[in-house]
Amino acid sequence: MERLKLREPRSYTCYFILILLIIEIIFMSGCTEGSLDNESNNEINKIQTDKDDEPKTVENKEEFTKIKETITIDGKIKDWANIPIFLQDEKGDIEEYTNVTDGSLDENGQFIITGRSYNYDVVSIKITSDDNDLFILVELADDLEKYFDKNREYKTKGGMIGKFYVDIDNKKESGEEELFTKLKGFEKKLVIAVSTNPDYEYSISYWLDVIPFDFSKRYEKNSDENINFIAVSNNFIEMAIPLEELEISKGQTIRIIFSEKGNKGTFADAFSEEIVKRI
Question: Is the pTM of this model over 0.85?
Answer without folding.
Answer: no
